[in-house]
What does this fold into?
Amino acid sequence: MISLQSECMKSRKPLFMLFLLAPSMTFAIEKPHNLHGTEIAQATVKWAWDPVPGAVHYEITVDGIAAGKTADTQILSHNLWGGDHSLTVKAVGADQQISSASLTAKLGVSHTYNAETTNGSYLVDANVIGTDTNIGDQNRSQLLSANDPSLVDPASWSMPEVLNKSGYDLVFSDEFNGSAINSYRWNTQLRWDGEFNGERYEYRVINGEDQFYINVDSPDQAHLDATESVYNPFEFDGSRLAIRAVRNPLKQTQGNKRFGPLRDMVAQQTFLSGAISTYDKFTQKFGYFEARIKIPNHTGSFPAFWLHHQKRAYEGTQRTEIDIMENLGHAPWYIYNSYHYNTNVSATRYGDTHSLKPQPEGQIYTGVDYSLDYHVYAAQWEPGHITWFIDGEKVSELSDASVNHEELYLILNMAMGGNWTNFPTNSGGLGRSVGDFFPTAFDLTDENFRNPALEIDYVRVYKRKP
It folds into this structure.
């Protein structure tokens, strides 16, 4: 996406194991069994398990966080938020041998604690052995709430593939198991769209695209009043986020402004859709970036997963962009990888654009219809080199010193239409004549427009261990 520029294994989130084990380690002590939880009072859960012969104490993990040790076979968790909570336990013998982790017990809590009376704390009661069980400090409170103040989703630690990623540390993730966008991790707009210019909020059209992105976290109340009450593009089902595009009921004109105030831009765009990004929240130079995604097979859809420059023009950017996954929905057999940067950028000059083509091909074709299932799209970004992967298989790579320039943030968006859509067929586009630029009246009939969505199972970012 040039800016302003298998469901075979649909993430059945597997069970916890929080500690990597040395290959030679054996377990002479049995792991705990029959873990269960009971909500015994508002926002309070009693967890219990069967005693393990030979155990002198137990190591407790609640909601993916080590919560201390106890010699008992039960603990209490207080001040919980409404939603799912989990427990895993390891038994420790007199000789300090540690069992394997138990199966994970899960319990849905129906009543959220009252933050005014509990000060937002999250407490676990146990007979503590040298460990502070208060995990409710500023950085660890409300761990699984919709607005968990952590860049790493605690649920990610239950994934064996996360724990077993050799040579990397997980530094950012979202498993999208909640019911709302986590605003600690994500913005719900593109950086330059809805930007305040000192007098008003300006909205921009990029690449000739035909969607208006609804910002559900907008600081502009006029934006929320005009759009959020009409449509929210972010859908949650407990295991994934879908960003869905719909026809815009607020469309009133056939305008073609490239930028302008809310009232003008929302009135001219054909579709309403959504985007999430981590600008000003999370950036990184180098690492492993991946997302498990299902793309739509819909004419005119333009989903993307990409990295973009955090620095502004006056801060020394090269306008770096790494496109990990792009697709045009009429051709779900093709995935595009690309890399762009600019030279001679200044506060008054956009710069000279360079688009480098990965090898052997930036247009990936494997014979797979990528809209039929979820696939993992990833980029391994190292000094002087980028390697792209689909489902763990290398599909393209690029070597160039320009990739070293700056930190980038993440974007996932569901665009509609745009200049690329009408490119010649040998460039991936529909190959239509100028007069048939998407969307035509034919494209917008009930038979042909089906509210396409970009479905996201998870996003994870890793950094090389030192």
